[in-house]
Automatic annotation (TrEMBL):
InterPro entries: GH (IPR017853), GH13_cat_dom (IPR006047), GlgE (IPR026585), GLGE_C (IPR049171), GlgE_dom_N/S (IPR021828), Glyco_hydro_b (IPR013780), Ig-like_fold (IPR013783)
Region (Disordered): 252-271
Site residues, Transition state stabilizer: D474
Function in brief: Maltosyltransferase that uses maltose 1-phosphate (M1P) as the sugar donor to elongate linear or branched alpha-(1->4)-glucans. Is involved in a branched alpha-glucan biosynthetic pathway from trehalose, together with TreS, Mak and GlgB.
Coiled-coil annotated spans: none
Keywords linked to the UniProt accession: Carbohydrate metabolism, Glycosyltransferase, Transferase
Protein name (database record): Alpha-1,4-glucan:maltose-1-phosphate maltosyltransferase
Gene: glgE
UniProt keyword Glycosyltransferase, yes or no: yes
Active site: D387 (nucleophile), E416 (proton donor)
PANTHER family the record matches: ALPHA-1,4-GLUCAN:MALTOSE-1-PHOSPHATE MALTOSYLTRANSFERASE (PTHR47786), GLYCOSYL HYDROLASE FAMILY 13 CATALYTIC DOMAIN-CONTAINING PROTEIN (PTHR47786:SF2)
Length: 666
């Protein structure tokens, strides 16, 4: 068997320069990398070629749809690795690539310098240099060509030593740069980059059921009641106020208190059973108020520095208008009934799922669902927590999120997928801005360290933003059921300092944890009934939450999960980590560091030896560093690497400090 002869002309057109291992990328460029506006993105690549020529490289980037590339020169690192950083200036989809070329004149300059330093006769080399300049001028824009022609003329008239000086002069270098000569110019594939607003990566969420906000157990709460509560939520330092569904609730198979299937006539039902004769996903539950009331709430929230996040739960109560209007969007059984939804072992008898590939579903259902999101976005809601996305079609999410973001590039989608890691990661790749995580079930030092290491050092770091909820209406964590107040403080400290995104479902601040016996569910869950609470209850942790949220706002190192470093504290129950803030000059110097100690044992006082990370500041083991205790407000100096920490769960089971090099302390 003989291969067709290789076409040499075609082969010679192939790139002479290799550009490999571009980072960050997601699945070789199939999905976009994520970043937020104002945050520098560091691009690296292996760039090399045959021979010894000097190479140059740039990272180029542009907003999708724009013609001109912006450029940043890449610096050469050891072993043919190159790096550059750039900071996107707008939100929305971008693309970036790496370009590299032979720097012919750079090679000439390098070799001429070496030969001259070695004392060789370089007369012929200066002739070669002038010929190279002529070549470069021949393809240069008019003005640059003219400048080069003048240089060539003047240099040709000089003696050898003055020619060398002229060829190596900054003026000649500048003229060559202006000519834009790029031999063997090669560009990598273009990679996607999704630039989100800051809140996609850094936000503090508070979740409540508006119907519980009346202050009176016999009266259904309203949007106007929520408006009254806004200052209190704002004062705790939250930025996002998230509601479970606020749409009409079906009556068929309505759930009663504690998930029973025998509701009384006055039971309010689960808000996830969306749809009734009053309307579906684009309607409001009449008892919560009108669209005007909702608009007033969105505006009042904004006045208080809060944005509203809505639940997007793609499912229908059997009473949803869509069942009658669009039967082809659902899967019917031969007897004309429908299967209720499940997330085994959980049974959702009061809802049915849509069928994304049902007879009339494409495009009808897909478009209708997209339009639901667009409708709420047009009402000023830009953040959506999406219920159970892992049970819905992957292609739908990629299409729908992109469609919404084309119109609303500031839209944010939080994936509520508690499922297999690869499925959670895929949803993030498909466009989810943030994702619920396993944080709620990571309680021990080794498992928290391992989980954060996975999230910050392996592939998900480029596309998966973990949202650390300490509890949800569905998750009353076993740890909190027995830990007492100290446990709530422990979990709050971990969530607020480990991730840029954290959230709590109300009741957490008053250490609510009564469970349905043996289950991770709340007793008398608010999912099925109205709950009135006393926020001033003794033992509440509102001051601590407020302080933690303030610390988060004031310390940029806490605006992401990325960058966490775990340090040695010699006690298996004390988790000890730091988050550095680097100087903006790109030197890699640490400006300051937030250092956190958490006693994970809510019942035992800990005294443990630990190492102060003096080395991170370039300090010797006997060096001294300034510390500000951010929870208590006092300042002190630590001298020497070996120290002891004291953590009393009956007072405060954690410390949050800021370390600053003494030379940087006023
Ligand atoms: O299945 P998940 O654990 O992801 O939970 C989410 O989806 C559930 C279904 O929407 C939702 O469950 C609640 O609503 C159901 C429908 O009304 C009801 O049958 C369940 O009893 C109730 O828990 C859950 O709250 C949501 O977070």
């Amino acid at each position: 068997m003989t291969d067709a002869p290789l076409d040499a002309i075609e082969a010679a057109r192939r790139p002479r320069i290799a550009i490999e291992a571009v980072s960050p990328t997601v699945d070789g460029g199939r999905f976009p990398v994520k970043t937020v506006i104002g945050r520098a993105i560091v691009v690296e690549a292996d760039v090399f070629a045959d021979g010894h020529e000097v190479l140059r490289a740039e990272v180029v980037w542009r907003p999708r749809g724009e013609g001109d590339w912006r450029r940043a020169p890449m610096a050469e690192l050891p072993n043919d690795r190159w790096r550059a950083a750039f900071t996107p200036e707008a939100i929305g989809r971008h693309e970036f690539a790496v370009e590299a070329w032979w720097d012919d004149f750079g090679t000439f300059r390098r070799d001429l310098t070496k030969k001259r330093e070695a004392g060789l006769d370089v007369a012929l080399e200066t002739d070669e240099g002038l010929i190279l300049l002529e070549e470069i001028a021949s393809t240069a824009p008019q003005q640059a060509a003219k400048a080069l022609a003048d240089i060539i003329l003047a240099t040709r008239a000089l003696g050898v030593s003055d020619r060398v000086a002229a060829l190596l002069s900054p003026e000649t270098h500048a003229a060559v740069e202006a000519a834009g000569h790029r031999a063997f110019l090669t560009r990598s594939a273009a990679y996607g980059l999704e630039v989100d607003r800051v809140q996609a990566a850094f936000a503090s969420w508070y979740e409540l059921f508006p119907r519980s906000e009346s202050g009176d157990p016999t009266r259904h709460g309203t949007f106007r009641d929520v408006i009254r509560r806004l200052p209190q939520i704002r004062d705790m330092g939250f930025d996002v106020l998230y509601f479970p569904p606020i749409h009409p609730i079906g009556k068929t198979n309505r759930k009663g208190p504690n998930n029973t299937l025998t509701p009384g006539p006055n039971d309010v039902g689960s808000p996830y059973a969306i749809g009734s004769p009053d309307g579906g996903h684009d309607a409001l539950h009449p008892e919560l108020g009108s669209l005007e009331d909702f608009r007033a709430l969105v505006a009042a929230a904004a006045d208080n520095g809060l944005e509203i996040a809505l639940d997007f739960a793609i499912q229908c109560s059997p009473d949803h208008p869509w069942l009658k209007e669009n039967p082809g969007w659902f899967k019917w059984r031969p007897d004309g009934s429908m299967k209720y939804a499940e997330n085994p072992p959980k049974k959702y008898q009061d809802i049915v799922n849509v069928d994304f590939y049902g007879p009339d579903a494409v495009p009808g259902l897909w478009v209708a669902l997209r339009d639901v999101v667009l409708f709420w976005a047009s009402e000023g809601v830009k953040t959506f927590r999406v219920d159970n996305p892992h049970t819905k079609a992957f292609p739908f999410w990629e299409w729908m999120i992109e469609e919404v973001k084309l119109e609303h590039p500031d839209a944010i989608f939080l994936s509520e997928a508690f499922t297999r890691p690869k499925v959670m990661y895929r949803l993030a790749k498909l466009g989810y801005s943030q994702s619920y995580t396993y944080f709620t079930w990571r309680n021990h030092k080794a498992e928290i360290t391992e989980y954060l290491t996975e999230l910050t050092t392996t592939a998900p770091k480029d596309f998966f933003r973990p949202h650390f909820f300490v509890n949800t209406p569905d998750i009353n964590p076993y740890f909190l059921q027995t830990s007492g107040r100290a446990g709530f403080l422990i979990r709050a400290a971990l969530a607020t300092t480990l991730s840029g995104l954290w959230g709590m479902y109300n009741g957490f601040e008053i250490c609510e944890s009564a469970p349905l016996p043996g289950k991770e569910e709340y007793l008398d869950s608010e999912k099925y009934e109205i709950r009135i609470r006393n926020w001033a209850q003794a033992g509440n942790i509102i001051p601590e939450i407020t302080r933690l949220n303030r610390i988060r706002k004031e310390n940029p190192a806490l605006h992401s999960h990325l960058g966490v470093r775990f340090y040695n504290c010699f006690d298996d129950h004390v988790l000890y980590y730091g988050k550095p803030r680097f100087a903006e000059d790109g030197s890699g110097r640490i400006e300051d560091m937030v250092l956190v100690f958490v006693n994970l044992d809510p019942f035992t006082v800990k005294n443990a030896p630990y190492e102060v990370p003096l080395w991170e500041f370039g300090l010797p083991d006997h060096g001294a560093i300034a510390v500000e205790d951010l929870m208590r407000g006092n300042r002190f100096t630590l001298t020497g690497k070996e120290q002891w920490i004291h953590l009393n769960p009956n007072e405060l089971p954690f410390h949050v400090w800021r370390l600053t090099n003494l030379s940087g302390v006023a």
